[in-house]
Write a structure and sequence with these properties.
heterodimer; A: about 260 residues; ABC transporter involved in vitamin B12 uptake, BtuC; B: Rossmann fold; three-stranded antiparallel beta sheet
């Protein structure tokens, strides 16, 4: 069954969608959208380094993404506004990454594959790494769910309940780095933030509880992955962007439906 | 022993010392109100007690196994986060629905379980925060300007609710108000804070202040009253600080009057 590249691609897309959905909800609730972008952009630098050092691209991307995320968390609130800081770091990391890649004369790499994903080339090993990473992220978030939610709502409330909001923030940061690393093959560094945010945002109107929103986001993400891949196959379009297009269309339709039912048309 | 005992607490943010030499103790069942102008370190004191701010010096001792119910100053729920009152009540402890219902009744807002938090009025929202703090039967309630954003009748009703809660559950209450002139008549003790403890003691209820009655109306059931204390006091040598109280915050009183 896994011999078919479409099957492998679909499984990879669904795996990433499952990890991205609950994490994406926190990214939306905590207004960390740009933070996700910065982390993802830093991954291209990680890819260049891992190709130069001939280590696993997953590992390299994850380590640099994690360093980036920790750096942003550490620098936050020290002189620059968060969006300025992220703007500086995200684009610098992307630029340095692209420059670093150009130094790699020995290896011929397809930059487009890293920027926009190469889901149709997912191997069995890739699939194992993607599902392993996704399971780790989902496990971390399920384990800390209540603590993460409390810290997101109010830091003092978390402290008074005996939690440490800084530790919960660290768990989100690590989950983000893992998700970025496993999503590179599927949607590429430029579109990872879309997989985090669009399904979560689309689920908002349908949910009454945080858990429902995460569940619906996972469903929307999985539908986007499956439908996007089918679309890419039928219309011969790039796979990663096609997945994001389906998610965006679902977001628009759900919002229109919600708007219609609210205004009683 | 005391529920909470604070000794010679010092809290700093960078080079800025917001609290120094603060000592106080909270005994079971008493209602203590902290008053003080903006920037006097009231919130920092509460943050230190719950462990959100690390003391630069001094000690905070909580009675072993002390259960704290915390009502934050303001709680902003991002519009992208859907959450029902019931789910919010179960945030840290997965308590059964009946317990949520009972806590909401104690806080004076029964029947809100299925509502979205974002649909509540300001008064309902604060009472749901109170109900959540009450849910695991705390030994002490900490309230950080819990009536911010409520109008006078609204905050008077809220303070009355606190009194009722104390009477029914026997929990101690430590709360902050930056409204110098509005302190619950039911406070057993008032602590005036301005970087340090200026003075503390039983509140003097001034029932015969007609201008206050006129200002707050008669519908407040006596929950609003003047706490008059002497700002022209002189500190003994043991206080180890010197500053002009008479200048610094009698202005605040004039503004209030």
């Amino acid at each position: 069954m896994l011999d078919d590249f479409m099957t492998r691609a679909t499984l990879a897309g669904v795996g990433v969608a499952f990890a991205a959905a609950p994490l994406g909800c926190f990214v939306v609730w905590r207004r960390m959208a740009y933070f996700g972008d910065a982390t993802a952009h830093a991954a291209i630098l990680g890819i260049a380094l891992s190709l130069a050092l001939q280590i696993s691209v997953f590992a390299g991307a994850m380590v640099v993404a994690l360093i980036m995320a920790l750096m942003v968390t550490h620098l936050a609130g020290r002189g620059y506004a968060m969006d300025t800081l992220l703007g500086v770091l995200a684009h610098s990391a992307l630029a340095f990454g692209l420059v670093a890649v150009s130094f790699l004369s020995g290896v011929r790499i397809d930059l487009m594959a890293y920027l926009f994903g190469d889901i149709l080339a997912v191997s069995r090993l890739d699939l194992m790494v993607i599902w392993g990473g996704a399971a780790l992220v989902v496990g971390l978030i399920l384990w800390r769910w209540s603590a993460l939610l409390t810290s997101t709502l109010n830091e003092e409330l978390a402290y008074a309940s005996g939690l440490n909001p800084k530790r919960e923030q660290l768990i989100l940061t690590i989950s983000l780095a893992i998700t970025v690393a496993v999503a590179i093959k599927v949607v590429g560094v430029l579109l990872i933030a879309a997989m985090l945010i669009i399904p979560a945002a689309a689920a908002r109107g349908l949910a009454r509880t945080p858990e429902a929103m995460a569940g619906i986001a996972a469903a929307i993400g999985a539908i986007s992955a499956v439908a996007g891949l089918q679309g890419a196959y039928v219309f011969d379009t790039p796979a990663g962007p096609s997945i994001v297009c389906v998610a965006a269309i679902l977001f628009a339709c759900l919002n229109l439906l919600g708007w219609r039912s609210r205004s009683g048309v | 022993m005391s529920l909470i005992s604070v000794e010679n607490l010092q809290v700093r943010y960078g080079a800025n010392t917001v609290l120094r030499n603060v000592s106080l103790a909270i005994e079971p069942g008493e209602i203590v109100t902290i008053v003080g102008p903006n920037g006097s370190g009231k919130t920092s004191l509460l943050r230190a007690i719950i462990g959100a701010a690390t003391p630069a010096a001094g000690q905070i001792a909580l009675r072993p196994g002390l259960k704290i119910g915390y009502v934050p100053q303001k709680l902003h729920i991002d519009p992208t986060l859907p959450i029902t009152v019931e789910r919010f009540m179960q945030l840290t402890d997965r308590v059964p629905r009946a317990t949520c219902q009972a806590a909401l009744e104690t806080a004076g807002v029964p029947g809100l379980l299925k509502r979205q938090m974002s649909q509540l009025s300001g008064g309902q929202f604060q009472r749901v925060l109170l109900a959540r703090a009450l849910i695991n039967h705390p030994d002490v309630l900490l309230l950080d300007e819990a009536t911010q954003g409520l109008d006078q009748p609204g905050s008077a009703a809220f303070y009355q609710q606190i009194e009722t809660v104390r009477r029914d559950t026997g929990c101690a209450v430590l709360m902050i108000s930056h409204e110098l002139h509005v302190v619950m008549s039911a406070s057993d003790r008032v602590i005036c804070l301005n970087g340090h403890v200026c003075c503390e003691g039983a509140p003097e209820v001034v029932a015969s202040a007609p201008e206050y009655r006129a200002l707050f109306g008669t519908g407040t059931g006596g929950a609003l009253a003047l706490y008059r204390h002497d700002h022209d006091h002189t500190h003994g040598d043991e206080c180890g600080h010197d500053h002009a109280h008479a200048d610094a915050h009698s202005k605040e009183h004039e503004a209030a009057e």
